[in-house]
Specification:
2 domains; 2 helices; mainly alpha
């Protein structure tokens, strides 16, 4: 009897989910045993905040430029 590709894909996906779930359980147990290592340094947090702030400044600048053009940019992107 020939197995359908869909059934084989479902079996493969189920096996992957089981493997991922068991690995996550192992990681969770290891984290419980070790405890929090506190590796999130202040510099990492500062860098993340700077990146988010930079993205907001760029988005704001683009919105202001579009507002100044009063919608005249609609033809540029093919819209």
């Amino acid at each position: 009897m020939k197995t359908s590709p869909l059934l084989r894909a479902q079996a493969a996906a189920t096996a992957r989910v089981w493997a991922i779930r068991s690995r996550l359980e192992e990681v969770h147990q290891e984290a419980k045993e070790r405890g929090d290592r506190g590796e999130s340094s202040i510099s990492t947090v500062v860098i993340i905040i700077a990146v988010v702030a930079g993205a907001l400044v760029i988005a704001g600048g683009l919105a202001a430029a579009y507002g100044r053009a009063n919608g005249k940019l609609s033809g540029i992107l093919g819209g």
